[in-house]
Every structure is written in C-alpha cells, then in structure tokens.
Predict the structure.
Amino acid sequence: MALASTLLFAAVAYLAVTSSPGWPRVQATFFSPSVALESLPDIARGLLVNLQVLVVGGLLVLLVGLGTAALRTLRGPAFAPLRLLATAYVDLFRGMPLIIVLYLVGFGFPALGLQGVPTSPFVLGTAAIVLVYSAYVAEVFRAGIESVHPSQRAAARSLGLTHRQTMRIVVLPQALRTVTPALLNDFVALQKDVGLISVLGAVDAVRSAQIQVGQSFNFTPYVVAGLLFVLLAVPSARLADAVTARARRRQQSGSLL
Amino acid sequence: MTVLELRGIVKAFGDDVVLRGVDLAVDEHRVVALIGGSGSGKSTLLRCASLLETVDDGQVLLDGEDVTDPRVDADQVRRRMGVVFQAYNLFPHLSVLDNVTLAPTVVHGRSRAEAVEEARALLDRIGLADKAAEYPDRLSGGQQQRVAIVRALAVRPRVLLLDEVTSALDPELVGEVLSLVREVAAQGMTIVMATHEMGFARQVADTVAFLDGGVLLESGPPAQVLGEPQHPRTRQFLARVIDAGRL
C-alpha cells in the first residue's frame, strides 16, 4: 500500500513536471546526460577537497566543541571568566550565518597581511566551519554532560576522584552515549556545509561545478555536484537513524546503558 | 580514638537552614546511627562530613585533622572516606568489577592486578563474584547496593558513611544489605549511618543520634535513645515510627 501510493504520487509529480511548457528547456539545461558525464571527473576531484575539509574539520569540531562545553560546565566563581568567554563564543557563532563567518575569516584574515597567517582558502574555509560548528557541538556536548545525573558526580567525587577524573571517566562516557545521535545529525549537516568553502575560491565540488557551468552555460554540473553530496550524506543519515533507534530502545527497556 | 568529629556544623541552602550547629564524635570501630524524620538533615550532615557539601560554619575533623580548612585538598580527604548512597549510584557504563577497581587504581595508584584481586575477593565475600563482568543494570537493587558498599570498602576507608542505604530497596531486598552492613561493622569498620531501620540501629549501633530540624536533640546508647527517649520530639518521632510498624 505504501509502495503503491508512493509510486502513484511520483507518477503524478513526474507527469506534472514533464508536461509543463518549459520542461524541454529545463531538461536540456539541468539534466543533460552528456554534460553530466563530462563534468563528473572534475566535480568528483573537487569532492575530495570537501572530504578533506569534512574529516579535518569534523575532528577539530569535536575537540573544540568538547573543550568549549567543558569550560561552560566548570563550576565555581574562579572560573567565571572562562565560562563567560565560552558562553560569548557560543552565542556569537551560533547566531552568525556560516556564510558571513566564511567571508569574514576567508577575506578578513588574509587582508591583515600578517606573517604566518595562512591564506589558503582550504585552511581558512575549514577554520570558519570549525568556528561555527564547534559552537553548535559545544551545546550538544553541554546538554549531554548536564544529562548525567549529579549523583554520578557525587559518587565519583566521594571515591576521591578529582573533577577532571570525574569528567573523563564517569561523566563524559555517559554523556557521549546520550549525544551520539545528535552529533551524527550535525555531522550530516556538516557534510553539505563543507561545500560552502567554494565561496572563498577553494576548488571543491561546488566550485568545479560552477566553473563548468560558466563554460558551458548548462546547469547540469550543479545537479551532479548536488547528487554527489546527497550520496555522501545518505550513509551517515542512515547511521544516525540506526543509532537513534538503538538509543531509544535502550531507554524504553529502562536501561541506562 | 576519635576518627570523625563534627563541630558546630551549619549548612543552609539559600534561606533554608538545614543544619544548625551539629556536634558529633565517632570513635574508631564504632557505629553511629543517625535517625530523624525526612528533612531533619541526616543526609546533609553526611554530605558535609564527606566533603560533598561545603559547610557554612563549623569543622569536620578526620583523625584529628581539620579537613574543612580551605588549605586542605578535599580530594585527598575524600579518598580516605567511603560513602554509600540511597540510590546506589553505581557507574552504569562500567562493569561491576570496574566499578570496584576504579578508585583503587585511579585514585590510589594500585596496580590493576592487585585491585582486581582485591575486588574479586570482596565480591566473592558478598556472593557476587559471578557478576563481576556484568553491568549494574543487570543486578537487583540489593545486589547493586552491596556492590556499592564493596566499592566504598575497596578504598580501605577510615570511616564508612551510609546514607539510608536501604530506603530505595524493595522490602525483601533490605535484609541482604543490612546483613552486609552488620558484617562490615563486626569487622571493626567505623560507620556513620543515616537510617530508618530502627530495629537494625538498635542491634548494630553503639550510639543512636536523633536529629530534628537540623539540631542533634539527643544521642546515646540505642537502649537509652530508642528505649527511654528524653526529649519530647524524640518520643513523638519514635511513636510515629512505631505506628508505621518499623520498630
């Protein structure tokens, strides 16, 4: 039944689109098989750049996000400046559109003309993405840390563990289990946002597509690049689903593990 | 010899003054039972004694050393005490064995092999050796609480603080936990326990202390405090406990 209704809907949508008066032109400029085939190698090479940003950026985001969350959850008046700093950072970069951060970092830093400041769009683009995503991920981690019941901390401290040992051995492992589904979701979002480094001129999949669109006046390369990103995202999305479902099952069975 | 001494402990949470100057001295190898209604300050007193809460006023002395002095490293003090909580508080992501060996290895720097050997011996003593590899959620409440007691004992504490360790248990599981406490007491462990089990307090405790509204109203041998309470509030409390069939 589900399959039948899906097929019916697809057929109706397909007919509606293909019978529209502009369809032949759209088909030629967006879905040209020959242009697609021609553009694929360059775009795929560009996608490797995106993958590099994804891997390097993703790891850095985990580190910076975790560090920021740790700072935000420090207790005691002595740590107020650090907490404040971390909070300001999160507020700033969660609120600012990624594209603006990309422009500011990507064009602002090189303009300073400072020695040792990298000018590569790859490095600066990754830095901008890390700045923004770490702010999100810090909040995910913080929620996870705070979801661990205070009695767990009390038990650890009563055994003589220091604050740091308590975090590392007792709180974080439990927090990580809680937030893994949310982290995977953010990873899926990151997978497509790495395409935005193209605005800085890094020759990634999007930029490669753009170049070819400029040469051929045919938009098919964009479709190709878009589909490649989707292909990249599907496995992670399914993984996120599976992990979320597993976490829910655990919760429903009344188990903490 | 006094192991743990509380002097004039005052503790407030905001406007709520929970402890209003409590004095208590616990000699080595002795068992002190703290009794009193809910909200009387028993748990808070134990949390102050174990330095899980900072006191607003007064001192906690462990083996004669003022451990509430700000120059004292509280982490160093806590490792010399064992605490068992009402809700067990085992670490759910660690196996039973790892729960027990965590503090001996990480805090006390003992070798893994030594800690494992000692943990297995302790688990064997409470009949849970076969559960060493299990995770806490596979254990019954009574089993979890006994593991929690063993976890606290594994650091070889100077004093064991028990915070209503049977209050969260199903009635049929209370016995196994109490008999372990009895055994630990018989082996000479110094114990302070907040409890609602008056019968148990009468049998095991050397001293029963009655807390009411953050004040220690009377303390003495169980026969005296439970048998011939001097203070009207104590009599009132015990009458309610008897009504509830707990004595």
